[in-house]
Amino acid sequence: MGAGAPAARNAGLAAARLGLVAPLDADDRFRPGRLSALAPLALAHGAAFDNVAVVRDEDDSPLLRLYEDGQAPALLDGERFLATSVPMFPVVRRDLVPGWDQDVNFCDDVVFNVRLLDASGPVPLVATPFYEYRQRAGSITFSADSGERAERCYRHVLDRLADDGLGIRNEALRHRFTRAIAAKRARNAAFQAAFKAGRCANFQEFLALEGAQADG
């Protein structure tokens, strides 16, 4: 009890017996048709991702989508993934699942996906937003200390990258990951400033605010 999400996911992985693994956070939802769309692609290519809809849990109101219409690439690789800011959860062939590092307890999904894409290479991305990332009051990402948690995670990931490379074999991808984490730290610092100023309640609202400013 209380060992954190990576430990819980590893326990679930150890109990899994079928050929595919589909991580789902407790707050989130699969929309109808997700597994039937992604499972054949994952079996053929090792993994498959889909677009993500960010939804406020209290009233089901949409906040944003990872990719708007016509923007989603057909294939996702490590570099394209590292350009995103919304959590992504693939359907993965079990033999390619890298497991979750239990010392990375906040941005573990980012590390998981980079290690997966390092092993698999580019995999299909379905443009339909079948995954709902639900923003719920009381969740970790909604907490007042989420920015501080993210900062600790980013520092730790950078230390691991400098030490053992997090097991990422592709040197160019390791360097790209290091640069991406540095950029995420800078954006997280901007989020913390906006949060403290009362301009947003969580990181996804901060992203929506950024998008609105860019469109303006």
What does this structure look like?
With 216 residues, this protein is an alpha+beta fold. It has one domain: Spore Coat Polysaccharide Biosynthesis Protein SpsA, Chain A, CATH 3.90.550. The protein has helices spanning 5-15, 34-45, 78-82, 108-120, 146-163, 171-196, 203-215, and strands at residues 20-21, 29-30, 47-56, 62-65, 75-76, 91-93, 123-135. Strands 1, 2, 3, 4, 5, 6 and 7 form a seven-stranded mixed beta sheet that branches. β3 (47-56) and β4 form a beta hairpin. α5 (146-163) runs antiparallel to α6 (171-196). The longest helix has 26 residues, at 171-196. The termini are far apart. The mean pLDDT is 90.
Helices and strands, with pairings:
Blueprint (H helix, E strand, L loop, with lengths): L4 H11 L4 E2 L7 E2 L3 H12 L1 E10 L5 E4 L9 E2 L1 H5 L8 E3 L14 H13 L2 E13 L10 H18 L7 H26 L6 H13 L1
Parallel strand pairs: 3-7
Antiparallel strand pairs: 1-6, 2-7, 3-4, 3-6, 5-7
Helix pairs in contact: 5-6
